[in-house]
Write a structure and sequence with these properties.
mainly alpha, rod-shaped
Length: 64
């Protein structure tokens, strides 16, 4: 009897923890995630510009 009650209690506790874990997941990004995405985009844009400058320098050097 005691063992069955302990199992039921443990399962109920586990189910409650899983439910809280799912409730903590957010669909919308928080401010830190948005800032990280903006930084990622800025770094990607800067990398593209550096690549374009490198191509322009290469084209200029090929012209001489």
């Amino acid at each position: 009897m005691q063992r069955t009650l302990s199992r039921k209690l443990a399962l109920a506790l586990l189910a409650g923890l899983l439910a809280l874990g799912l409730a903590a997941c957010q669909d919308e990004p928080g401010p830190a995630e948005e800032a990280g995405q903006e930084i990622d985009q800025a770094m990607e844009d800067a990398g593209d510009e550096v690549e374009e400058m490198g191509d322009a320098i290469e084209d200029a050097s090929d012209g001489n």
